[in-house]
Amino acid sequence: MEEASDHPNPQVLTVLEALRQASHHLQTNPTLNSDNSNSSAIKALLELETESNSLLSSDPHLSALSRHLSSLKDLVHTLQKSRGHSLTSFLTRRASTQSISRVAGSIESEIRAWIDRERVEDLTRALRELADDDELVKLLTQFENRVSQGFSHELQDLILKSKVFSLLESVLCNPNCSKKIREHSGFAVSALIRFNKDVFVGQVLMGRTVLALIAMGSRSSLTVLWSLIKSIKSPLVDEIESNGEIPKIISFFSSQDLDIRIAAVDCAFEIGYYGRKEAIEAMLKEGVIEKLLELQRSEMGGILIEMGWFNEEENMKSFDGVDIEGIRRSRDSREKRFLETHPFASCVARFAVQLEVGEGLRQREKRAFKQEILGLVREACASDAEAATIVAEVLWGSSP
């Protein structure tokens, strides 16, 4: 990458962003009708073409963009001259508008590539220097938003050549960096996995990302961990279990911070869904059922089955013409609203359902674990009535 682009002129970025927006707007309907907003886009592009000549000429990466702008100017002049009603004028206008749309697409692509290159360079420089937290947070947020827009071969090549993942992991694992920077680095890693799991998942599994996230133990780091488990599934759960990290995740159930408790339970649910036998055994050994039961008894808990929602469908089946699907949707909506304010409601049954419907266990293992969970519930409950209620919920199966 050229040294000249290390500190891009902000004026260039402003002009290019205006060009990008105008070219994007122009692609769908490249007309010159006076009442059409695309006429304004063409006008803006032509004005910027004149203004940008001196700005763009100094950057070799923008030479193709200058050529596209010049081509656009010629095409617009051709379109403006074909105002007649003859067949020739009609065909000329049709060909010109198609060409304008195509050139506008090329302009947007060139601009996007330039902006991507500059921002990746800025990010890698900032990750190495670790000078300004606010600037680095801004760059990390921009990067996360960009890769979240969808896959791009060109952007992936930039990321790989710049070794962005290694830099993000290095910052994430650096205890001398601020917690805010480390958390934003974690979110950027998660975005890269969604961007292209096939390329970046190996770096997560072989690196220190997961250990660093768990060691940080914040709501954001556990949210990133939850996202990674959902994306990578059983292979990541295997790594978590083999590295002995499950006890640390379960220990967050006792945090004084409610958000950390919620994030830890979410992680446990995902481990339950994707975990193999060894991971589930490790959770049960750490007392996951007993700890979930404590959370369920708290003011943020509750028991969904006591609200009668699970009996509605059965009670109404005997009536002709009853909309059972409507009953289910209504129940699910009410349950969702309740769980927003009571995140630990029926969490024992919800955990059991995760195991039962999940992908990590064989059927015989699911049956065996369900019986083990029922036994643990009976032992941990304070009364026979409480045990009967929670056992009923596990057997009914709350929504996961």
Written description of the protein model:
The protein has about 400 residues and is an all-alpha fold. Among the domains are: about 5-115; about 130-230. The chain contains 21 helices and no strands. α5 runs parallel beside α8 (about 180-195). It is elongated and about 90 Å long. Residues about 1-5 and about 35-40 have low confidence and may be disordered.
The outline comes out as elongated
Mean pLDDT: 83
Which stretches are poorly predicted, pLDDT < 50 over at least 5 residues?
1-6, 34-38
The span between the termini is 49 Å
Helical content stands at over 70%
Rg calculated over all Cα atoms: 29 Å
Can you write the helix and strand succession as a string?
HHHHHHHHHHHHHHHHHHHHH
| Count of DSSP-assigned helices | 21
Outline the biggest β-sheet.
none
Q: Look at the helices and sheets and give the structural class.
A: mainly alpha
> What's the number of extended β-strand segments?
0
In percent, how much strand structure appears in the residues?
Answer: under 5%
Nutshell version of this structure?
By secondary structure, the protein is an all-alpha fold. Helix content is 76%, strand content 0%. Among the domains are: 3-114; 130-232.
List keywords for this structure.
ARM-type_fold, 400 residues, elongated, ARM-like, mainly alpha
Topology:
Elements: H1 10-28, H2 37-56, H3 63-81, H4 87-129, H5 133-147, H6 153-162, H7 164-172, H8 179-195, H9 197-206, H10 209-216, H11 219-232, H12 234-242, H13 246-251, H14 258-274, H15 277-285, H16 288-297, H17 309-316, H18 324-341, H19 347-357, H20 363-380, H21 384-396
Helix pairs in contact: 1-2, 1-4, 2-3, 3-4, 4-5, 4-6, 4-7, 5-8, 7-8, 8-9, 8-11, 10-11, 11-14, 14-19, 17-18, 19-21, 20-21
